[in-house]
């Protein structure tokens, strides 16, 4: 399946992208003090985090476990010289569930990030992707 994106210029460090469904997204590479939108590298972290989350949610529900919410905190460490790719990425999932077991969460997250998530499969092989989780019970 081919995916197509159309990009248009707004200014030297700001662009608009549009997918085939007509969804728009503005991307900028402004300095932090002028930032208005996510950068391409922030979008990559977001894409990895949410892509894996879809698979994690699916696996939790297939096991008929309670799922009230899922959140994540993701950070990346980049190399100093161009191209400034991520040398490591850390993803921590906060899973709100009354009955999910630690070993299940570990397995689901590991499988999602390393096997099922297409974004994860697209990241450089030498990028280290670490994960952790916390199950929050109420």
- Quick one: biggest sheet? 3 strands, antiparallel
How far is it from the N-terminal to the C-terminal residue, by CA? 42 Å
Q: CATH superfamily of the largest domain, called what?
A: K homology (KH) domain
Parts with pLDDT < 50 across at least 5 consecutive residues:
none
* Largest sheet, spatial ordering of strands: 1-2-3
Number of helices: 3
Q: What's the pLDDT, averaged over the residues?
A: 97
Strand content: 25-35%
Q: What is the CATH architecture assignment of the largest domain?
A: 2-Layer Sandwich
If you consult CATH, what is the topology of the largest domain? GMP Synthetase, Chain A, domain 3
Q: How many domain modules?
A: 2
Under CATH at level 1, the class of the largest domain stands as Alpha Beta
Q: Which shape, going by the Cα principal axes?
A: globular
Characteristics of this structure?
single chain; 138 residues; GMP Synthetase, Chain A, domain 3; 2 domains; three-stranded antiparallel beta sheet; 3 helices; 31% helix; 35% strand; globular
What's a quick, concise take on this entry?
By secondary structure, the protein is of the alpha+beta class. Helices cover 31% and strands 35% of the residues. The protein has 2 domains: 5-34, no CATH class; 40-136, GMP Synthetase, Chain A, domain 3 (2-Layer Sandwich).
């Amino acid at each position: 399946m081919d995916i197509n994106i159309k990009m248009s210029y707004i200014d030297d460090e700001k662009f608009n992208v549009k997918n085939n469904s007509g969804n728009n997204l503005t991307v900028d590479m402004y300095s932090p003090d002028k930032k208005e939108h996510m950068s391409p590298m922030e979008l990559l972290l977001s894409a990895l985090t949410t892509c894996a989350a879809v698979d994690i949610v699916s696996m939790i529900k297939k096991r008929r476990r309670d799922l009230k919410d899922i959140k994540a905190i993701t950070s990346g460490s980049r190399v100093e010289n161009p191209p400034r790719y991520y040398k490591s990425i850390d993803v921590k999932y906060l899973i709100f569930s009354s009955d999910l077991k630690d070993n299940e969460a570990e397995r689901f997250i590991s499988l999602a990030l390393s096997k099922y998530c297409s974004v994860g499969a697209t990241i450089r092989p030498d990028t280290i992707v670490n994960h952790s989780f916390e199950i929050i019970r109420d």
